[in-house]
Amino acid sequence: MTNNWMKKQRLLGYIFIGPSMLGVLLFFLIPALYSFGLMFTNYKFMNPNVEFVGLDNIIRLFKDPMFYLSLKNTAVFLLAVPVSIALGFVVAVVLNQKIYLKKLLRGLYFMPYITSGVAVAFVWMLLFHPTQGPINGMLRSIGIDNPPGWLSTTTSSMFAIDIIWVWFLLGYNMIIYLAALQEVSPELLEAAKIDGAKRGQILRKIIWPLVSPTTFLLLITGLIMTIKTFGIIQAITHGGPGNSTTILSLYVYQNAFRYYDMGYASTLSWALFIVILLITLVQWIGQKRWVHY
Amino acid sequence: MKKKAWFTGMASLVLIMGVLAGCSGNGNSNAGSEASPSANATASSGDPIQLTMWGGVPPESGPQAVVDAWNAEHPDIQVEYVRFVNDDEGNLKLDTAMMTGQDVDLFVNYTISQASKRVEAGLALDLSKFSDYNIDEKMGPDAKSFLIDGKYYGVPTTKSPFFVALNKDALDAAGLEVPKEWTWDELREYAKQLKQDGGYGFIQHTEPYVDPIDSVLAKEGYTKADGTSNLDHPLVKKWLETLNAMMAEDKSTPPLGEQLTSKMPVEQEFLSGKAPMLNIGAWLLRSSNNFTDFPRDFKIAFAPVPRLTDNAADYVTRGGLGDYISINAKSKHQEAAWEFLKWYADGGMAPMAAGGRLPASKDADQDAALESLLGDKADTYDVDSLMYVMFNNPAPTYVRSLPQEVMDARAQEYEKYFLGTQSADDTIAAMVKRHNEYLEQNQ
């Protein structure tokens, strides 16, 4: 009797997740498998002649200097994530104290995250303008004669993008940290104080370890999100100047939707998947050393 | 209680089945409509035929007036204009719409490489099946550039000149003539003389930026006899070095890095009088006729695009014709689309002239089109030089046909050069290498 009831319950469960599983199946799993198949063809969108080309695309990938360059650019882009997490932590700690206009400041820091990407892109382009932009204007006024060209040189463009990205992620990281800081029990802090711990020690030895699961979460989601992003770069530089801001995800996009080269784009996106997987695995293994639950 | 759970389960099952049925039902109806185009056509004899035309020009800049005029005259064939933005996303949208069988009856190709892709996919109708319109005769010798595998898969409808727009007042003040043919060295001198404090003497739209190279290679061939890249042609280096000298030594043209990252609004710069020379194409007229957004107090004159080669006889210039309009090979109303297309090419497109698009057909009323082109602004243009770059320039023309991959690879390398991170020789070597790689992959 109970067994029967359990069975029914289970069936009911499947029925309830059915519709959403259907969505996952149709719009994620099947396309993913399909793109795996495409990897071994020379399929170009709109071109009816599709041939099986074996491992050609994979060999091309390993010989493609643009692939390595885009990997390097992606690595530089990812630097923004830890920097933004660190800044987010500092801002959250500051805003968690009793300070003036706290709520307004929290709101302001979170603004970038909910602002339209294209608007953000244009504002930053103006700010970064090498000769007329306010950033370089300020640098010149404090006595720096040759301020960086930001987005307009091949050497500095990726770092300029990093700055934008740090700014963009900051608000989100801060909000999550603020929530985590509420969870830190005041008794612990008080006990530490009574034992004579200084503010810096409390921060380093008590608060930071206590929010480490949050840091871990932010690191994983931040890296995955960053590695998949290309919209902001597409809007600001299109991967240029030269190819100095072509990150892997943008290179996938260009191959697929600019050159219609779906076979190679599929290969590249599986490479992207493997990169994400590796980064996540490394973190998962590494977390034992520094994440305290 | 048990009964209730059972009921909920059934209800959600029914829901899922409904969703599934919805999907398959859709599939069925698609297959049906594909299989019976003729039935559809006859059934609709009472109703007017609905045509959809996709183009990249904003409706208010002419296309809406064109289709309104046609619809008023032809109650039996009604045309609707859909705008796609002529960039990667826009073209992708058009291609997907056609691949998935949405109603696209006519579409405008803006480059020959896009047109060829669509021909390959079987989306563009071979127009040789219609014998009542001789494209060569109507459009003149420039139409030949639009043959794909020896056939017309569309009609090039508009005159599409590229030119250097000049601030005539500034030229007069400096005592310079409006050139009818010139070299890049001469342009460099002009730019030096016209340059004012803090400003530039010459600016360029990024679209025709690389045309000087294409002009050389369209004539000399993109590949050498042995099938390898010809991008190491000596004139390519000459272009790189001339332009670089203008940026770095003369400071008469903006450094490319600055232009790209600030997305310099070149039309605005030119029309506000800040820069006296602008390398651009016919679409400048869309802005220069718009005195509300671009007020201007000088006369515009036009010069052909300068050449790299010393010998004027070797020069081919980009342009000639443009707006290559095709009929969707899957369209149910090909005959009707063809009727519209002929009418459009032979003068129906006149309202498009306000945006700089003059009809190419010899049977179109050029005076009417010119009037619509210049409007009440005729006295703000040097009409003689405009007529020269539009109609009378004797230089033969070419249409850019290089694949996007090569265009991009080339642009990335010359950007590195103009930004100073790569020498001219390395740049050329890199361009050649990447072009060869492309050729190898796509032989």
What is this entry, summarized?
The complex is a heterodimer of chains A (293) and B (443). With 293 residues, chain A is mainly alpha-helical. Chain A contains 14 helices and no strands.
Would you give an account of this structure?
The complex is a heterodimer of chains A (about 290) and B (about 450). Chain A is built from 14 helices and no strands. The two termini of chain A are about 40 Å apart. Chain A is mainly alpha-helical and about 290 residues long. Chain B is α/β, with parallel strands linked by helices and about 450 residues long. Chain B folds into two domains: about 40-160 and about 320-365, D-Maltodextrin-Binding Protein, domain 2 (3-Layer(aba) Sandwich), CATH 3.40.190; about 160-320 and about 380-440, Periplasmic binding protein-like II (D-Maltodextrin-Binding Protein, domain 2), CATH 3.40.190. Chain B contains 18 helices and twelve strands. Chain B has helices at about 1-35, 35-45, 65-75, 90-100, 110-120, 135-140, 170-175, 185-195, 210-220, 235-250, 255-260, 265-270, 285-290, 335-350, 365-375, 385-390, 405-420, 425-440, and strands spanning about 50-55, 75-85, 105-110, 155-160, 160-165, 205, 275-280, 300-305, 315-320, 320-325, 360, 395-400. In chain B, α3 (about 65-75) links the parallel β1 and β2 (about 75-85). In chain B, α8 packs parallel to α10 (about 235-250) and α17 packs antiparallel against α18 (about 425-440). The longest helix of chain B has about 35 residues, at about 1-35. Chain B is globular and about 70 Å long. Chain B starts with a helix and ends with a helix. Residues about 15-45 of chain B have low confidence and may be disordered. The interface of A and B includes residues 11, 155 and 243 of A.
